[in-house]
Amino acid sequence: MSDERVRRTSYTVDVAAPAGVLYGLVADTTEWPLLVPPAIHVERLDFDGVQDRFRMWVTANGSVTSWISRRHLDPARRTIDFHQEVAAAPASHMGGRWIVEELGADRSRITLLHDFTVAGDDPEGAEWLTRATDDNSRAELARLKETAELWPRLDGLRLTFEESVRVNGPAELVYDFLYGIGDWPEHLAHVVRADVREDLPGVQVVTTDTRAPGGPAVTTESVRVCFPHAGRIVFKETRTSPLLAAHCGEWTVTPDESGVTAAVTHSVLLREEAVESVLGRGADLDQARRYVRDTLGAAGAATLGRARRHAESAVRVLCPGQ
Fold this sequence. Notes:
With about 325 residues, the protein is an alpha+beta fold. The protein has two domains: about 140 residues, START domain (Alpha-D-Glucose-1,6-Bisphosphate, Chain A, domain 4); about 160 residues, Alpha-D-Glucose-1,6-Bisphosphate, Chain A, domain 4 (2-Layer Sandwich). Strands 1-7-6-5-4-3-2 form a seven-stranded antiparallel sheet. The protein has a seven-stranded antiparallel sheet with strand order 8-14-13-12-11-10-9. Strand 4 and strand 5 form a beta hairpin. Helix 5 crosses helix 7. It is globular, with a radius of gyration of 22 Å. It starts with 6 loop residues before the first strand and ends with a helix. The relative contact order is 0.14. The model has no long low-confidence stretch (mean pLDDT about 95).
C-alpha cells in the first residue's frame, strides 16, 4: 500500500439545522438505509457507544458491494473516523472522517473526507472508485441536509410498522416463497411484474410493477439481501413510489416449538411535497400516513398469507391422510 498513490476527496455542505441533529443522523448507522440513498443495509456487529463495527451493503456505480467498517465516534468534537477492515475492490485502503461544525443555533456545516488507494494503482480501478466515491458522497450529503432540515417535522414523516402471520408449515417453504419474488405475479393480485437479477449470490436486484386497489400500476426498483440460514430478507427501494422519499424493511421467518411466525417490517420516509399530487387537493400528512400504512400493510399481509398457503399446502400434500 505504501507504494500506491493516496487519493483524497473532500465534500462540504452547510445545513439549516442544529449541529447536534446533524451529527445524530450521521452517527446512527442503523438508520442509514432510510436516510442515505446509497445505503442498502447495515448489519451492526459491535457497538459500545464509541467504537462502531458493522457490515454495510451499498450501491456504487449501479452495482451492489459490501464491506465491514470500523468507526470511532467523538460526540464532544462531533467527528467520526472510519475505515474499511478489508477494503472493497478495487480499493486497497479506504478511510476518512465526518466532521460536523456548529455555525449557529440552527445552522451547521458537515464535511466528509476520504483517503483511499487503489490496488496496483490501476487506472480503470481508480476512475471507477473516484466516480463511485464522488457520486455516493454527494448523494449522502444532499439527503442528510434535506433530512436534517426537516428535523422539527421528522417524526411525522417517518413511519414504521409490521404485519405478521402464524404458519403451520415448514419455515423453509415460507422462506422459499418470500425469496422467489420473480414468481409473485402468478400468485399475488397486487404484483403485476417482477424482474429479478442476482449477480451476487443472495443479492437480488428487482424491478416490480405493483397496483393498489383502484389505482394505476407503479414501478419501483429495490435491492434485497437474503440471509437464508437466518430466515431473513432485508430490502431497500432504490426507486420509490412518488409518495415515499425512502422505503426499506425486512422479511423474517421465525420457527418455534408450535409453528412459524412470518413477518414483514416496513420503514418509510414520506415525501411531504407529494401528498396533494398523489392523494388529491387538501390531503394532509395524517392522510398520507394512513394511506401508506393501509396500502403497504395490505400488500404485506397478502404476501404473507400466500406464503402461508404455500407452506401449509405442501404439508397437506405430503400428508394426505391427515
